[in-house]
Specification:
Strand content: 15-25%
Strand order of the largest sheet: 2-1-3-4-5
Oligomer: single chain
Order of helices and strands: EHHEHEHHEHEHHHEHHEEEEHHH
Shape: globular
Number of strands: 10
Distance between the termini: 38 Å
């Protein structure tokens, strides 16, 4: 990765932030402790928020604390360990925004020459969790739908992914897991806990706007950009992009989703993109699947937005994907010629089994 700051930036002239996220508390604490040089001692973590604090509020609290400590003369690096269910992207974007505002309107003249901001977003993930939640191996648990979505988002929003549990898995499986991570997050560095001490000793420069950069370089977003060209993935992990200019018929889409199984289309580990329902022409839908769980909701983008995407575009990641089968199945869910000609007045009467969008 490249830095937006001069190479002369040092820990004595800056106060950086490293956020550590991950599903397992023990994994997060181990990496945090190793980065602090205390593998067997207490983990120095600053507490922010509580169970009622949302991600944006948490990000604001963390950024305000970082700026306060910089004004008090602290320099170097601060490590903050997030809870297992933290929405890391929302937290990071809020931190970016608060620090950018402070940089534009400085209130502490004594910190004018101090660089403040994020150094790293570290995700600690166990290979076992990735195999169970994304590769659908082992016995599924009731909470897997939410947990798998959290895991995928943590992997996609990271500058560094620290993999744990490698000693319990064969090398071929580890390689396949790393390949998937590289597909989901092409800019991330993948490493092991043994390298965490080096992460603490060799800090990378602060990169202003780092969270916004990460939010725009997830694998699925890059795949949906026609200007990007990707080499084939190693092994059996690959990605296919499905596009369809016509909106989906809601009833046929609901029935078609049940056929996106490993037996029919290959193993889909992750898919993400946007879609349109014929009877909901005022909003763009958000498509997200992790492992065997599919979540369809509102993207927050209205059709009136000049940058609103047209039709459907979905990036599908997985193992031994049958791209023709995926395309055929989803194309059959789109409106036919006759339905398209009937127009929106007819579309409004379609049976729609999906929950309403707020």
């Amino acid at each position: 990765m490249t830095s937006d700051r001069p190479s002369a930036q040092t820990v004595t002239s800056s106060l950086g932030l490293t956020l550590v996220s991950g599903l397992e508390t023990s994994g997060r604490q181990l990496v945090t402790a190793l980065m602090c040089g205390e593998p067997s001692g207490p983990t120095p973590v600053t507490e922010f928020g509580d169970e009622q604090t949302n991600a944006l509020e948490l990000g604001v609290d963390i950024a305000d604390d970082l700026l306060r400590q910089a004004a008090d003369g602290r320099r170097g690096n601060i490590i903050v360990e997030l809870s297992s269910d933290a929405e890391t992207q929302s937290v990071g974007l809020a931190i970016d925004h608060v620090i950018a505002e402070a940089r534009s309107h400085p209130s502490a003249p004594d910190t004018a020459d101090v660089t403040v901001g994020a150094r790293e977003f570290i995700t600690v993930a166990s290979i076992g969790d990735i195999r169970r939640l994304l590769f659908q191996e082992g016995t599924p648990l009731p909470e897997d739908a939410n947990t798998s979505a959290t895991l995928a988002e943590q992997l996609e929003f990271a500058t560094i992914v620290v993999l744990t549990g490698a000693d319990a898995h064969p090398s071929g499986l580890i390689s396949e897991t790393c390949t998937l991570i590289q597909q989901l997050n092409p800019t991330a560095v993948i490493t092991t806990p043994a390298a965490a001490s080096d992460l603490g000793r060799h800090l990378r420069p602060i990169r202003p706007g780092l969270a916004h950069q990460l939010a725009s370089t997830a694998g699925w977003m890059l795949r949906l950009d026609d200007r990007m060209h990707f080499p084939p993935a190693r092994g059996h992990i690959d990605c296919t992009v499905f596009t369809e200019p016509r909106p989906f018929h809601p009833e046929r889409l609901a029935a078609g989703l049940a056929n996106l199984t490993p037996e029919q289309v290959g193993l889909i580990t992750r898919s993400r993109g946007h879609f349109r329902l014929a009877n909901r022409t005022d909003h763009v839908g958000d498509w997200s699947s992790t492992g065997g769980n599919i979540q369809l909701g509102a993207s927050g983008v209205t059709s009136a937005d000049p940058e609103a995407p047209l039709g459907t575009s979905i990036a599908v990641f997985g193992r031994q994907l049958r791209t023709d089968a995926i395309a055929s199945l989803l194309h059959e869910c789109a409106l036919t010629d006759e339905e398209l000609i009937a127009g929106p007045s007819a579309w409004r009467d379609y049976d729609d089994p999906f929950p309403g969008w707020e």
